[in-house]
Amino acid sequence: MMKNDIFTTSALFKGKCTLTSLDYKQVLIMAKENDLIYMDPPYQGTFVNGGFRYYGDIILADFIASLQALNARKIPFILSYDGRTGDKTFGESLPSHLELTKIEIDAGRSSQATLLGRNHTTFESVYLSKALVQKLNSNIERLFNGSSKNQISLFEFEEI
Length: 160
What we know:
It is built from seven helices and five strands, in the order H-H-E-H-H-E-E-E-H-E-H-H. It is an alpha+beta fold.
């Protein structure tokens, strides 16, 4: 099943995306209004606590400034930024002046909690820029209404 998803994704993105190995600030400067930026930076503190999983933490003030610059240029973006498991929240809230739409996605049972003998569900936070929400013509509420049973998978399409 994963093989099929990888090949389907490859076919969808062929000739439509660029992969780079640059500092995120350099990539964001190159972005244009018709681009869609997807960002999944390390959760705050995971470099220190997460060991080898990330090269390093991002500097929050610099990251927020980069998001503000994208907003000013009307560049649409999606940001997977923080989350929660059980009663533990990961990452500081993003400032309201960024005007982001937050969607919580039920990511299922936490593997880390399971390893520690607990049974917690992980909720990932995904933020949509104002420019992206405007491009989607306010259909976000219909696609994501806070209930995991109504979330669609990557290759399951719904007419909107």
